[in-house]
């Protein structure tokens, strides 16, 4: 599912909201998650999962084409861990 499909589904489920308002809400939520991660904060959505930032330290890599050693700098990457409820739903134990 892409963001526009998500907006469309939410708008269909909530006919009292305009699609442009739903799009603004979805964009605001995603922007806030990105901003929190950029600050180094953890974002937890109960029943869904948690977003956090992990540090990948600098290392020496290898160019697969030439075999030469390449220096790879330190970087921070987003990490998502699914919540217990989501894992249960995916594995057939969906709560009603």
UniProtKB/TrEMBL annotation:
Stored PROSITE patterns: HISTONE_LIKE (PS00045)
Gene3D superfamilies in alphabetical order: IHF-like DNA-binding proteins
Lineage: superkingdom: Bacteria
Any one GO biological process: regulation of translation
GO cellular component: chromosome; cytosol
GO molecular function: DNA binding; structural constituent of chromatin
Pfam families: Bac_DNA_binding
SUPFAM superfamilies: IHF-like DNA-binding proteins (SSF47729)
CDD domains: IHF_B
Keywords: DNA recombination, DNA-binding, Transcription, Transcription regulation, Translation regulation
Keyword Phosphoprotein: no
Assembly and binders: Heterodimer of an alpha and a beta chain.
Family recorded in the similarity comment: Belongs to the bacterial histone-like protein family.
Function of the protein: This protein is one of the two subunits of integration host factor, a specific DNA-binding protein that functions in genetic recombination as well as in transcriptional and translational control.
Protein name per the record: Integration host factor subunit beta
Organism encoding this protein: Lutibaculum baratangense AMV1
């Amino acid at each position: 599912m892409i963001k526009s499909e998500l907006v469309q589904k939410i708008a269909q489920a909530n006919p009292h909201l305009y699609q442009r308002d739903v799009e603004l809400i979805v964009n605001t939520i995603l922007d806030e998650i990105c901003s929190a991660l950029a600050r180094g904060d953890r974002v937890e959505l109960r029943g869904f999962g948690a977003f956090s930032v992990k540090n990948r330290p600098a290392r020496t890599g290898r160019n697969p084409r030439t075999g030469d050693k390449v220096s790879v700098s330190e970087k921070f990457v987003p990490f998502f861990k699914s919540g217990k409820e989501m894992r249960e739903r995916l594995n057939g134990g969906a709560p009603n």
